[in-house]
Specification:
about 750 residues; 6-stranded antiparallel beta sheet; 13 helices; 38 strands; single chain; alpha+beta; 6-stranded mixed beta sheet
Length: about 750
């Protein structure tokens, strides 16, 4: 690898290091590092081989672009720009693109030590990404060559900014080096427009084939069955032939050539032999021509037979087609008009007009009745065809007739911020997603009462998709053109969308998506009583829950102690039902009769053979009494976090909350392995809570002090447990708790309740 600083300075720069800080013209000296040796960050950059294997160009985590994160400051006396950061950035990756399109990369920088662009006149741009003081992954860039050209009042080319290359047909990439540079600088990009020498433009899209030796791309409009994929390998461009035409399932690469020649050859092949969309100016409605200059330039090409042109005042678009090949001037018909020789257009000496054919016989003899010159003439012809000759209008979006409704401020019935305010209508959802800081919403199925939580996942193009809590890996959803849709991804990123399945519009679409996630995924159902987290505490909520369709089990909570039980429906033949409690199936049942909660005594083995009903309290008081009675008198499973293996605690916060509530024994779980141990509260020693573990030796216990976890070794010579010991604290919070679980499982005989 070359040394970049040496490359920039040999024969070009001979500036002493000691003079840099003094040479700055106007800049706050607090931004200058006193020792120039800290500014030699460019010396550590190494050149990237753009012909390297495709593995170098895999997707990467996307930083958040921050406008003004880094800007070019005043120049030093030798012409090099200083750098000014608006935030302190650490663990920074720097990518420098030189004017010769070579790319240089370095990692591990601190923005406080990066204050100058050495050899600025040879640098095209520098790109930065790293972590700010808040831990956010951010990015910024400086366009050095643009700044230099602007100083000289030279027009700046769009393609100089690597981040803007290929984002639309106007900035289409023309060389192989430009394309690979774009991938290196912006590895999260997944689509580019590329152009051949004839001006043909296609759109190529990155595909994720995990084990492929090639960098794999599809082409918009070309077959997506795995028979027309584009590949790049070791600097060469070509076609990929997949085994049995199964995309990404092994295959071989046939090269069209290295570098730009290979890329150009592939573009031409796609244009000639497939249905790839050609985004060349005028070739599609999306790229319709609007000026006479562009029209005359495009139509003069021998291979052009048809073009789209647009009326800029109305957005109307027509398609014109060459006819009369032997005519010395250009003659056109227009799609949709009668092809009878009375609706044609001609060009003579650069002017457009209506052709009057002698005798109405097309392509024999005639003359042009000219309209206005230049672009005005082109626009006039388009309007004539649309208004008078029934030409097909290829306008991209036909706007409805303008209506001026009375301004009505949107009203929001439910904002989805809580389970109680779960959204049920599409109207409320569309308002809620635009509320400040709104990124998660509870939504409710009005038929079943099922409640899910939708979560926003932003994409780099400004849109977003939504995943569902509990079903993070089971497909996403979004709203597109007013319809709720199911999303299928191409890769690991939620924003790599392969296919969108359009479903129902409006509230019907929202309701369908909720029911589909409940039926087909492990989405967490927050319906009251359906989960431990949504345990019911009031009689009113319970009466609503038992009437919901398919509701046969409900979690209920004692608001005094936090104990949680599960009541289960047992239907009887007379249309009524009784309820038994999980873990206490043989210890008596319960029901509600005349508004009162009751204890049931059976006469036989059948739950519905009722001997006596002991009426108890009304309403919520009755529900709360039944919960406490089952906890006190039976072996009912207590689903209170940590009280049962099934509800083992996984976070330090939940553990300390339970301890403070008076818990003496709790189950805790290692989230990485599923191992579960039982922790028992001991004494308070030196303002710390001590804990023993079931099955483990009593010689060494666990201690929690101010949220920090560690161990304690009791001094048996001076009284032992709770009398004298040595505390050694390790890690805080959930990390500390998880470490203690792992230690007990690996190093002791602690009982594993997994």
């Amino acid at each position: 690898m070359k040394n970049l600083l040496l490359f920039l300075t040999i024969g070009i720069l001979s500036v002493g290091c000691d003079n840099y800080a003094d040479d700055v013209e106007v800049i706050d000296r607090s931004t200058i590092v006193e020792s120039f040796e800290n500014t030699n960050w460019m010396a550590e950059l190494t050149q990237i081989d753009i012909k390297a294997s495709a593995s170098q160009f895999s997707s990467a985590a996307e930083p958040m672009p921050v406008p003004g994160l880094v800007t070019l400051g005043p120049k030093f006396s030798n012409g090099d720009y200083s750098l000014i950061f608006s935030q302190h950035i650490i663990d920074m990756t720097i990518t420098a693109v030189l004017v010769d399109e070579t790319v240089w990369v370095g990692t591990g920088y601190d923005s406080q030590n990066v204050i100058v662009v050495n050899g600025s006149h040879l640098v095209q741009a520098v790109y930065f990404k790293g972590y700010n003081s808040g831990g956010e992954f951010v990015s910024g860039d400086v366009q050095v060559l643009e700044a230099l050209l602007a100083e000289q009042e030279v027009e700046v080319q769009e393609e100089l900014n690597v981040l803007r290359r290929g984002v639309d047909p106007e900035s289409a990439i023309r060389t192989s080096d430009q394309f690979i540079t774009s991938i290196i600088v912006n590895p999260s990009a997944d689509s580019w427009y590329v152009e051949d020498a004839a001006g043909n433009i296609i759109q190529i899209n990155k595909l994720i084939c995990e084990d492929s030796d090639f960098f794999v791309m599809s082409v918009t409009g070309a077959p997506q069955s795995g028979v027309a994929d584009l590949g790049f390998q070791n600097g060469a461009w070509g076609q990929i032939f997949w085994d049995d035409t199964v995309r990404c399932a092994g295959g071989y690469f046939v090269s069209d050539g290295d570098g730009t020649a290979g890329l150009q050859s592939r573009i031409q092949a796609y244009i000639q032999y497939s249905d790839a969309v050609n985004y060349k100016l005028g070739f599609t409605p999306e790229s319709a021509i609007t000026t006479s200059e562009d029209f005359l330039s495009a139509i003069s090409s021998d291979d052009v037979t048809s073009l789209y042109v647009e009326d800029t005042s109305t957005d109307d678009i027509i398609q014109i087609n060459k006819i009369c090949e032997d005519n010395e001037d250009f003659v056109f018909s227009v799609a949709g008009t009668e092809q009878n020789g009375f609706t044609d257009t001609g060009i003579k000496n650069g002017r457009l007009g209506y052709i009057h054919w002698d005798g109405g016989v097309r392509c024999v003899d005639g003359y042009v009745i000219f309209e206005a010159e230049g672009t005005e003439g082109l626009q006039s012809r388009i309007q004539t065809y649309i208004q008078n000759l029934n030409a097909t209008n290829f306008r991209l979006t036909v706007a409805p007739e303008p209506v001026a409704p009375e301004p009505v401020a949107p009203t929001l019935s439910r904002d989805g911020s809580t389970i109680e305010n779960a959204i049920t209508t599409n109207e409320d959802f569309l308002i809620a997603i635009d509320l400040p800081d709104a990124n998660s919403w509870y939504v409710e199925d009005t038929t079943t009462g099922n409640i899910l939580q939708f979560n926003r996942f932003p994409c780099s193009n400004g849109t977003f998709v939504m995943y569902v809590t509990g079903a993070e890996d089971d497909g996403d959803t979004t709203i597109q053109d007013g319809r709720w849709v199911e999303i299928n991804r191409t890769g690991e990123s939620r924003c790599d969308i392969r296919r969108v399945e359009l479903e129902y519009p409006g509230t019907a679409g929202l309701q369908f998506r909720i029911s589909a996630f409940v039926a087909s995924t492990d989405a967490t159902n927050f319906r009251p009583g359906f989960t431990v987290e949504s345990a019911i505490t009031t009689n009113e909520d319970f009466l609503i829950a038992i009437d919901l369709p398919s509701a046969n089990s409900w979690y209920v909570e004692d608001t005094t102690t936090g104990n949680i039980l599960q009541f289960n429906r047992f239907p009887c033949s007379n249309g009524t039902f009784v309820m038994y409690v999980t873990g206490a199936e043989d210890d008596g049942d319960t029901t509600i009769q005349d508004g009162r909660w009751a204890e049931i005594n059976q006469t036989g083995g059948n739950r519905c053979d009722i001997r006596r009903v002991e009426l108890e309290y009304l309403g919520t008081a009755g529900l709360q009494f039944r919960i406490s009675a089952f906890v006190a008198r039976t072996d009912a499973t207590n689903f209170r976090p940590g009280f049962a293996v099934e509800s083992a605690i996984t976070t330090s916060e939940d553990f300390l909350t339970a301890i403070e509530a008076g818990a003496t024994s709790l189950y805790v779980e290692d989230t990485s392995t599923g191992d579960i141990i039982q922790v028992n509260r001991g004494c308070d020693y030196n303002n710390s809570v001590t804990l023993s573990v079931t099955g483990a030796s009593a010689g060494g216990d666990t201690v929690v002090s101010n949220g920090v976890w560690g161990g304690i070794v009791w001094d048996n010579l001076h009284g032992g447990r709770c009398a004298a010991g040595v505390i050694d604290l390790y890690s805080a919070g959930t990390i500390g708790m998880q470490e203690r679980i792992q230690l007990y499982i690996v190093l002791t005989d602690a009982t594993n309740f997994r």
